[in-house]
């Protein structure tokens, strides 16, 4: 039954809904999706329908990582639900976790529009949002209004960035800004994990904390907060392995449990563009261009730091094969955004159902057993 519903929904998304959506500006599609989604999730009958896409829980997909229990490894990556307005709907669709935000200490309108530019043939979105969000206080209040049990089997990861404004360019102010958000979130018992976003390519003053010395000073201050939930770092993917490894060397010296690999791609010459992309369009690229780069960084990170860091693999997941590859290369969990837009929301249930088939085919009893099996010998 679910298989049929997913297959019909996927066909309808590809042949009817996506062509309509892709005719409209991505900025308006994104904001209307958030508005419609928050309305739908509160309707008793209509709101329950997305539950038909979800794969029923199966203990073979369950894992405890960083001390947190995940019912399946597929999550929403940071940036789609910036103000954490869609948590009930995202759980109903079948996600095993969500990364909300990025949130910042001070509310921010983001960069001048447009924020998004679609590259349909490249299967990518150019993102220039600049961390728009309602600010940690208002967002944290919203999280507390959800029923507590919503997050019991659906861990909420909150992505924390530094406020996108001129005043945070100064290092000590920037560090205080991150810490202010974390201290505020510590009072919110529904948050399961903190993701520190050091790699937003569109913010005022660039990405200063991707410099090892500055990252070290930031993490020293975060250590001192003695946070009660695990901390992970959202990594940039524009670095070569040597420079990436320098950041990991800093990270493992601190109270950090994992890394998300990774953020948007800035270097367009590595993007394998199949669409025109004028220089006037600013921003970092999501989707397919990030896939091989993130996969190789996941593999290397798992090989060298797999015993110390949990990896959330993000970048260009459009199918079960894409998710499975990331897990086989070393990711315990997988995040996605662009795949959702290009393939439709039934993709989450499709991936979880197909992961179970792949486990059977390959003779694994649990998804945890798959993590990293290809890290040593994969040729990317
Ligand atoms: C619309 C959009 C907004 C994003 N905003 C954020 C953000 O606020 N914080 C963040 O850490 N990453 C942000 N990202 C990056 C994604 O979390 C992810 O790392 C990247 O898009 C690669 O994954 P994908 O190919 O599945 O989209 C954003 C991406 C997209 C597409």
Describe the fold and architecture.
- An eight-stranded parallel barrel has the order 3-4-7-8-9-10-12-13, surrounded by five helices.
- The mean pLDDT is 95.
- The chain has 380 residues and is of the alpha/beta class.
- The radius of gyration is 19 Å and the shape is globular.
- It has one domain: Aldolase class I (TIM Barrel).
- It is built from eleven helices and 13 strands.
- The protein starts with a helix and ends in an 18-residue tail after the last helix.
- The site of flavin mononucleotide has 27 residues, from strand 6 and helix 10.
CATH architecture, please?
A: Alpha-Beta Barrel
Total E-strand runs: 13
The CATH superfamily appears as Aldolase class I
Overall structural domain count:
1
- CATH topology category name: TIM Barrel
Mean pLDDT: 95
Structural class category = alpha/beta
Strand content: 5-15%
Spatially, the strands of the biggest sheet line up as: 3-4-7-8-9-10-12-13
Number of helices: 11
What order do the helices and strands follow?
Answer: HHEEEHEEEHEHEHEHEEHEHEHH
Query: Class, according to the CATH hierarchy?
Result: Alpha Beta
Ligands bound to this protein structure: flavin mononucleotide
Helix share bin: 25-40%
């Amino acid at each position: 039954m679910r298989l049929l519903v997913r297959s019909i929904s996927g066909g309808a998304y590809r042949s009817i809904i996506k062509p309509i959506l892709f005719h409209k500006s991505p900025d308006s599609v994104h904001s209307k999706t958030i508005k419609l989604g928050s309305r739908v999730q509160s309707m008793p009958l209509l709101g329950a329908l997305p539950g038909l896409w979800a794969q029923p829980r199966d203990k073979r997909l369950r894992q405890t990582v960083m001390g947190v229990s995940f019912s399946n490894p597929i999550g929403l990556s940071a940036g789609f639900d910036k103000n954490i307005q869609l948590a009930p709907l995202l759980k109903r669709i079948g996600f095993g976790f969500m990364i909300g935000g990025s949130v910042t200490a001070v509310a921010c309108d983001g960069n001048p529009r447009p924020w998004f530019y679609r590259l349909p043939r490249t299967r990518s979105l150019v993102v220039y949002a600049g961390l728009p969000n309602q600010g940690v206080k208002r967002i944290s209040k919203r999280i507390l209004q959800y029923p507590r049990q919503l997050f019991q089997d659906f861990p909420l990861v909150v992505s924390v960035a530094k406020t996108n404004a001129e005043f945070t360019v100064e290092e000590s102010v920037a560090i205080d800004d991150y810490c202010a958000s974390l201290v505020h979130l510590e009072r919110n018992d529904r948050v399961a994990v903190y993701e520190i976003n050091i790699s937003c390519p569109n913010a005022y003053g660039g990405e200063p904390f991707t410099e090892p010395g500055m990252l070290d000073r930031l993490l020293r201050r975060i250590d001192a907060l003695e946070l009660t939930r695990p901390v992970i770092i959202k990594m940039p993917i524009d670095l070569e392995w040597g420079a990436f490894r320098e950041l990991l060397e800093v990270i493992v010296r601190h109270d950090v449990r994992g890394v998300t690999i990774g953020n948007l791609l800035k270097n367009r010459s590595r993007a394998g563009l199949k669409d025109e992309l004028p220089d006037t369009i600013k921003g970092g690229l999501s989707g397919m261009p990030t896939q091989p780069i993130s996969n190789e960084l996941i593999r290397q990170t798992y090989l060298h730091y797999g015993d110390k860091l949990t990896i959330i693999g993000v970048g260009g997941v459009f199918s079960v094969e894409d998710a499975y590859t990331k897990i086989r290369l070393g990711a315990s969990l997988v995040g996605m955004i662009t795949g959702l837009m290009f393939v439709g929301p039934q993709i989450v249930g499709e991936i979880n159902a197909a992961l179970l088939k792949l486990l059977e085919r390959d003779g694994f009893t649990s998804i945890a057993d798959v993590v990293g099996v290809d890290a040593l010998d994969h040729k990317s």
